[in-house]
Amino acid sequence: MAEPKKKRITDIGPPSYENFLPPIIKKNYGKWKYHEIIKPGVLMHVSESGDKLYSVRAATPRLAATDTIRLFAQIADEFCDGFLRYTSRNNVEFLITDEKKVEPCIAKLKKEGYPVGGMGNSITNIVHTQGWVHCHSAATDASGVVKCVMDELFPYFESMKLPAKLRIAFACCLNMCGAVHCSDIALLGVHIKPPVVSHDTLPAQCEIPTTVSACPTGAVRTATVDGKPSVEIVEEQCMFCANCFTVCPSIKLNNPTDGLSVWVGGKVSNARHEPMFSKLAIPYIPNEPPRWPTVVKSVKNIVEVYAKNARKFERMGEWIERIGWPKFFELTEIPFTKYHIDDFTHAGESFRRSVYFRQSDVRE
Amino acid sequence: MAAKLRETPLIDELLKGPWPSFVKEIKKCAQNEKNERGSARSNDLLGVLERSYKETIGHWKHGGIVGVMGYGGGVIGRYNDLPEEFPNVAHFHTIRVNQPSGWFYTSDILRKLCDIWDKHGSGITNMHGSTGDIVFLGCATDDLEPTFADLTALGFDLGGSGSAVRTPSCCCGMARCEWACYDTMALTDDLTRTFQDELHRPAFPYKFKFKMSGCPNDCVASIARADMSIIGTWRDDIQIDQKAVADYASKLNLENDVISRCPTKCMSWDGKKLSIDNSNCVKCMHCINAMPKALAPGKDRGATILLGSKAPIIGGALLSSVIVPFLKIEPPYEDIKELAEAIWDLWAEHGKNRERVGEFIQRIGMGNFLEQIGLEPRPEMVINPRSNPYIFYDQDQE
After folding, report:
1. C-alpha span between B22 and A290 (Å, rounded)
2. B93 pairs with which residues across the strands?
3. CB A313 to CB B25 under 8 A?
4. Minimal CA–CA distance to B369: which of B385, B346, B390?
5. Would you say B327 and B301 are in contact if contact means Cβ atoms under 8 Å apart?
6. Which of A9, A46, A66 to mutate to test the interface with B (most CBs of B within 10 A)?
7. How far is Cα A156 from Cα A300, in angstroms, rounded to an integer?
8. Model confidence over A75-84: pLDDT tens digits?
9. The pLDDT of residue A2
10. pLDDT-derived band of residue A288, with 50, 70 and 90 as boundaries?
11. B-contacting residues of A 105-134, CB under 8 Å?
12. Residues 6+ apart with CB under 8 A from A87
């Protein structure tokens, strides 16, 4: 006799956040008065009642072992009565009510290898995707590049000396599960070779009409190969978006020639200037594991030129808008190529339709 | 006793440097003696990753239907293309676990989640995935149901995937921010519960994301990443503490750092008093960000609702655009739910496969879209009226 089945629980949604709020937050919910960054990585929120909450922000690599989560739980027990939260950029925040515990908490985190910072005019953690660790369409590794870039930019994480905050994001293909398209600096994995169709497996694995309609440029067409239905790729029409591969695993796009592109000047906040898309700075850098030296050097160069030239409060995109794109390419010494000029839908919107530019920037 | 770690000279280079290393994290899992099966999986993951670093190409495949009974989403099928060499990651699926609003946890609940994942999986997580879920990386097909049973017994459920409502997420809002113009965590929690069916059983043309930001600083990138972006704002005057402004005047150059940075130039400072022409304020937040002790959003608070942002696939990246200029955000949030349902009804009926709402609106025209979902056109919805005269005049008009 089979055991009587337990009732299967479904559709309950997440547990209520109220279960996990520290008493100081429950008491002051909606009653916070102001906040200050008292030092890099430490926020102090003051409520109308005068209560003070200290949040110590530490970096995590996003990919976390359960043992690391247990370590954070232990640190939370030691310094914050067991309460912590994560941020939208993969940092962890320890919520402390006793000011005397702030410094010991920071010391403990640093000792365990999780640095404290990423607040105010800094470079905080990079939001990123799975890359070669776990993704089928990755054109590059995500965690590895992020690690190398942050190793190099580390002083900017622990300090607040930039003109404004600088947000970096990473997506390992154009699907952009990282939605990097509105970041001060976006690193984006790119495929540069057309896909290869596996005609043997395609009829069983893929729906041909869905596959054909997945292509934004009409480069995927029906074809009969060896008497069997399949598709063919009009290679000169392909712009390597990988959408066909996403709907049809028999169209393989990954290639050892895949690499990365660099985009700059996007933002999502409304402060001073409306949200902006990031724009192309560097069209292609080959994958150079394990330390991606060219990507690291390129990002560092852009950060340093920005830090030197932007005015206080100016985000990357605001700075470039003030000085003009010709000047940006001059200062960063990044070559301007035909790839920088849009040629997709609405391309003309980015053409200059005036004589409003600085003749002083025109180079021979 | 955990097996010997695979030799990984290339990715070992990523153990160096001051930034926390993900390779160290995977190695922690591969050496976890309490989790023999999971450590074998993590060890094979090290091997696959080393191989990718050598060949500059990924080794993962997608496809196939995998999940838990009765759900159409929440699990992403992932298979390795070198199963003979790396048998322990032959299938290595992702489980998305719906996070509590605002990503607040107790040490107790984190340990219980870890217990479940150490019992059934690799021990590797993402805290958190891009959409906001707790992500468990590396579950074998047979372990999905037992993991799900333990999760629901603990009070957790799966997040969204595929052509469904994706796990809604939000900033920490009123829990720890004085700028929150509405209760982002409460709304997120409520919408997530209300739309459980739409979240677990994909029935749309493509994904639909909600993101709740408490103010125009938009800490969860709602305007760039959500099909429906709900961004806090206010209608009345910015609250000013003149004494605190005077204190800032000794630390900041008010004229250069605040007044001249105002996009509508609606502020002035006479050396003693800050004046704001609130009727011209566009709620950019700069002055409030610069002087948090002195200025605060007004008291008549609510949100702007915007629609349609997305990443490039398929028709190009979009930012969300205004659809409701101002709405009071109050439980039971019937107006927001009715709006979302009206949009889904139309889009599910007429949207093309893998067409996001933003692309759908561009294809059918915003005017037609508004008419169908029952909203009036408003000048706040556009930067300017059309400049082209190709107008589709209604044929049933007089």
Report:
1. 13
2. B139
3. no
4. B346
5. no
6. A66
7. 11
8. 999 999 999 9
9. 57
10. very high
11. 113-115, 127, 129-134
12. A57, A93, A125, B103
Q: Does B190 touch chain A (CB under 8 A)?
A: no
Q: Output the six-digit token pair for A211.
A: 């596959």
Q: Which of A35, A132, A181 lies at the smallest CB-CB distance from B292?
A: A35
Q: What is the pLDDT of residues B359-369, one digit of tens each?
A: 999 999 999 99
Chosen for mutation from A32, A268, A294, A296 (greatest number of chain B CBs closer than 10 Å) is A268
Give the model confidence (pLDDT) of B213-232 as tens digits: 999 999 999 999 999 999 99
Q: Which residues of B touch A196 (CB under 8 A)?
A: none
User: At B17, phi and psi to the nearest 5?
Assistant: 95, 165
Strand spans (E) along chain A: 32-39, 42-47, 52-59, 63-65, 83-86, 91-96, 168-171, 185-190, 196-197, 220-225, 228-233, 251-252, 259-264, 279-286
Residue-level pLDDT at B81? 94
- C-alpha neighbours within 13 Å on the C-beta side of residue B301: 23
Distance CA B214, CA B181 (A): 5
Six-digit token pair at B363? Answer: 């294809």
Residue B64 has pLDDT above 90, yes or no: no
**What is the distance between the alpha carbons of residues B114 and B110, in angstroms, rounded to a whole number?**
6
Beta-strand pair A185-190/A168-171: parallel
Closest by Cα among A318, A291, A344 to A165: A318
Measured between alpha carbons, how far is A97 from A76 in angstroms, rounded to an integer?
A: 12
Q: Tell me the average pLDDT across B240-260.
A: 95
pLDDT of residue A1 exceeding 60, the answer is no
CA distance B397 to chain A (A): 32
| Half-sphere exposure for A47 (CA within 13 Å, toward CB) | 17
Residue B365: how many other CB atoms lie within 10 Å:
11
Judge whether B75 and B95 are in contact, CB under 8 Å.
yes
Q: Which residues, at least 6 apart from B103, have a Cβ–Cβ distance to it below 8 Å?
A: A85, A86, A87, A88, B128, B132, B172
Query: CA-to-CA distance for A278 and A287, rounded, in angstroms?
Result: 21
- Nearest chain A alpha carbon to B211: A88
CA separation for the pair B279, B299 (Å, rounded)? 15
Tokens of B33: 């003696």
Phi, psi of B116 (to 5 degrees): -65, -45
Token pair for A219? 């480069």
- A288: exposed, middle or buried (Cβ count in 10 Å: 0-12, 13-18, 19+): middle
The residue behind tokens 């921010």 is: B177
* Dist. CA B54–CA B12, nearest whole Å: 12
Which DSSP symbol is given to B371?
Answer: H
**CB-based burial label for B21 (10 Å; 0-12, 13-18, 19+):** buried
pLDDT digits (tens, 9 = 90+) for B338-363: 999 999 999 999 999 899 999 999 99
pLDDT (0 to 100) of residue A246: 87
How far apart CA A134 and CA B126 sit, in angstroms, is 11
Residue A350 structure tokens: 């980015």
pLDDT in tens, B13-61: 999 999 999 999 999 999 999 999 999 999 999 999 999 999 999 999 9
Bridge partners for B105 per DSSP: A84
Q: Which CA distances in Å does B217 have to B102, B193, B200, B222? A: 16, 26, 31, 10
